[in-house]
Fold:
Amino acid sequence: MSENGYTFTRIATDDPDDFRFEITDPDGDPVTAYDVEHDKKLHLIVASRDLTAFHHLHPELADDGTWHTRLPLKEPGPYRAFADFKPTGAGKLTLGLDLQVPGDYRPQQLPHASTEARTGDYTVTLDGALEPGRSSRLTLKVGKDGEPVTDLEPYLGAYGHLVALRAGDLAYLHVHPEETGAGPEITFSAEVPSGGAYRLFLDFKHDGEVRTAAFTAETAPHGH
Ligand SMILES: [Cu+2]
Structure:
C-alpha cells in the first residue's frame, strides 16, 4: 500500500518466517531516517484477517533501509501487516501489506462485543463508546485476581498501547493515549471513521511481561 508517495514493500526471502521489507520514499529510495515515536522508529502490527491473531512487533533497521523481523504466525490464512512510522521530515504514516500463510484456513467468528477481557490472571474492563465521525474516549481498567493494578510498568513510553482494527476490511484506527498514571485506569481517544465492529487490542506491561487483552466493540447508534 502507498500513501503520499511512500510505499511498504516486502523483500522476498527463502524463509517464509523471515519478514524483510522496506519503506520507499516518493523518489523510490529506501527511507533510512525515521523519528522515534513511542520509543521505536517503526511499529509493526500483524493481525489475521479474522482478527483472532494479533502481534505487535519491533523490527530492526539495517543501514541500507531494510527492516527485518521474524513472523510468529502459526495458523494458515490471510494476514495484514501494518507499519506505523514517521519518516524524518514527513508526516506520520500507517501502511498496510497483505500476507498469506499457506495451508487450510479456518476463519473464526468475531467474538461478541464485550466490555471485559481476560488475559492470564488479568481482567481488563472497557468503559466508553465508539461513535462514528468523532473522537471517542475509552477507559480501560486493569485488575488482577480481583484487585485493581496500580503498578503498571511503562511500555514504549506509556502505560498502555491500544490498537483498533475494523472487522471485515481491517481498517486501522488511530488511537492516542492520554496522560495517565500507573493504573488501574488507562485512557485513550479513538477516532472512528465509520460504524461497525472493531477489535481492540490493549498491550500493557506488568511484572516485567507485556500482555495483550482483546475486545470486540461495536459503534454506538447515532445520537447516543
Ligand atoms: Cu510498537
